[in-house]
Amino acid sequence: MRDNLVEQIISEVMNKQTDVSTNKKTAASFAGCGLTEFVGTALGHTIGLVIANVDHQLHEVMNIDKKYRSIGILGARTGAGPHIFAADEAIKATNSEILSIELARDTEGGGGTAA
């Protein structure tokens, strides 16, 4: 009798867990991420940023096509060559494009970390 009670409780808990996880998946599938996200930092004072759901005013200011819904920005004070090479490899591996490359003027007050 006790085993039957334990089995019944476990089955009820499992049914409730299944219902809750199904509801969360459907709600999350309709919700879009509209947040600006800090991706991270790396060597060479590199900072990555993703802007999801780009506003139409930003399209106009940056002079980019309206088909781009999200943009990624990579900034660095030094090491343009390695950063461009890494971006090229990432573009080849994903469904994305490089819209613009601008080189840093700062280089940490001289030749950067290479000097």
Automatic annotation (TrEMBL):
InterPro entries named among the record's database cross-references: BMC_CP, CcmK-like_sf
Residues making up the signal peptide according to the UniProt record: none
Top-level taxon of origin: Bacteria
Domain BMC circularly permuted, first and last residues per copy: 37-115
PROSITE patterns: BMC_CP
GO cellular component, one term: bacterial microcompartment
Name of the molecule in the record: Propanediol utilization protein PduB
Organism, scientific name: Raoultella terrigena
Lineage, highest ranks first: Bacteria, Pseudomonadati, Pseudomonadota, Gammaproteobacteria, Enterobacterales
